[in-house]
Amino acid sequence: MATYDTSDIRKGLKFMMDGAPYTVVEFQFVKPGKGAAFTRTKMKNLLTGAVLERNFRSGEKLEEANVEIKTMQYLYKDADSCVFMDTTTYDQVSIPETTIGEAKDFMPENINVEVLFFENRAVGVTLPNFIEQKIVETEPGFKGDTSTNTTKPAKISTGATVQVPLFINAGDVVKIDTRTGDYLERVGRA
Amino acid sequence: MSVESDDRQRLIARRPALEARARVLSAVRRWFEGEGFLEVDTPARVRAPGQEVHLDALPSGDRWLITSPEYAMKRLCGAGYQKIVSIGKCWRADERGPHHEPEFTMLEWYRAHAPLETIAADCETLVRAAISAAGPAASPAFAGTATHPFTRTTVRDVIHRFAGIDVVGDESPETLATKVRAAGVDPGTARHWDDLFFQLWLDRVEPHLPTLGPVLIFDWPTPLGALARRHPTNPHVVERFELYAEGLELANAFGELTDPVEQRARFLSESATRRALNKPVYSLDEALLAALPTMPPTSGIALGFDRLLMLVLGLPQIRHTMAFASDEI
Predict the structure, then answer these.
(1) CB 3.0-4.6 Å disulfide test: which of A163, B42, B125, B286 passes with B72?
(2) Domains in chain A with CATH codes
C-alpha cells in the first residue's frame, strides 16, 4: 500500500486510520505562529458514515486505504440481500440489505449505483442523487389547492413513502432527492 | 452588453475592504505617532532571516526575505531607540490557507523599559482604534466583544480548562506525550516537545478559545521560549503572550531576551533542529547578538495586520483583506 504525505490531502482522498477507511471531506492549512504546519482534516468513516476532525502534522504519513468504487447495476432482491452486477465485467455480487441501509428504499431495479469495496468486500452503496419514480399509492389530491405547503404521504414504486404536494396523483412520476428522501418536482402526469 | 472579467469584478467587490484597510492603517499610524513612536522601515532582504524551526524564508537573490523585522528592530533597540514601530511586508514560504498568505503585512513594535503588560494594553487600545477607524464596515459582533477588557489568562490555565491536563513546562517530551495521550489526543509520530504541545493545542484548546472573546494568553512553557526571557519567578515559563480573538492567533509578544549567551545557545539549537529536519540552515545574525548587551529591558510584539482586518471587518479569509492574494497576481 502506498503512503501519503499531509501535502497529498485533498477532498476525496481515501486513507486508513485506526483500522478503518476514511475519505477526506474538507481540509484546511493551519499553523501556529511558532509551531509546525498542520492540515485540519474533516473526514468521513466509509464504514459507519461518522464524520470527525483531526489535525495532521506536516510530516505525518497516511496509509492508502484498499478501497475501490465500482459502478454496478441493481438486478433483484434475494431474501435479505440485493444482487448487483458489475457493468464492466458482468460479475454479480450479493450485498446484505443491512449494508445498503436506507438507500434500498430508493433503489429501483436496473438502476446503476456506486458500490464501495473495502478490502474486496462490498461495504456501501451510493445511489444517484436524484431518481424519478412513479407514485403507486396516494390519497386523491384536492384540485386547485397549490397555495399552501401542505403535503401528504405517497408510496413510490421502490416501496418508500415520501411527502408530496396535494396535487400529486397515483400514476404521476416525481423526482426525488435520494440523500434526503425529499420530493423535488413532478416530471410526468398520470 | 459587456462582459467584465472575473478579476475586475473581484477587485470591485473588494473595494469596501480596501477602503477600510486604508482607514485602519492610517489610524494605526496616528496612534503610534501620538504615543511617541518612531516608525522605522527595515530591509526586506537580509543575510540572516529568523532562525525559528517552523518558519521558512523565501530566497531573494543571494539573500532571504524577512519572516519578521525582529532582528533589525532589536539592533535599533540596542542602539537606544526606545519606542519603535514597523509596518511592512513579511514573507513565509509555503504558508497558504484561509488564515495564511505567504506575503502579509506585519505590525511590529518595541517599548524599552516597559513590562509586557504595557504591550498588552497597547493591543486593547489598537484593536479598538482599528474598529473605530473601520466605522460602518466594522463587524458588530467583533466590536461587541472588543469593548470589554480582554481576558488575561495563562497557557497552563487554558490547557487545564479545555483539555483537563496540567502542563507545567518542565516535562520531558516523554512525560508530555503521556499527558497528551491522557487528554485523549493521539500525538501520532510527534516526539519533539513543541510538536506534542501544538497537537494538544490545536486538537483540544484552540477550538475553545473563541468562547473567551479576545484573550491574552501569558506564560508560555520554556521549551517554546524562542526569543523571550525567562519569567522572573517561574523557571518553567517565559515572558510571552499571544493574543487570540475568535480563535485566530493575532499577535505574539515577548519580554525580550537580551542575554547574548543564552540567545546564541537557542539559535544554535534551532539551527541544529533545522539541519536535522533537512530544512535550509540560516547563518547566525552576529550583528543582532552583538547588539543584545546594550539593549535595555524591552517588550516587543508582532501583530498580523491582515488578520486584524479580518476580525475587524468580519471577513472569513485573509485574502479578502488584500487587493491581490498570492494566487491573484
Answers:
(1) B42
(2) 3-64 (2.30.30.30), 67-126 (2.40.50.140), 130-188 (2.40.50.140)
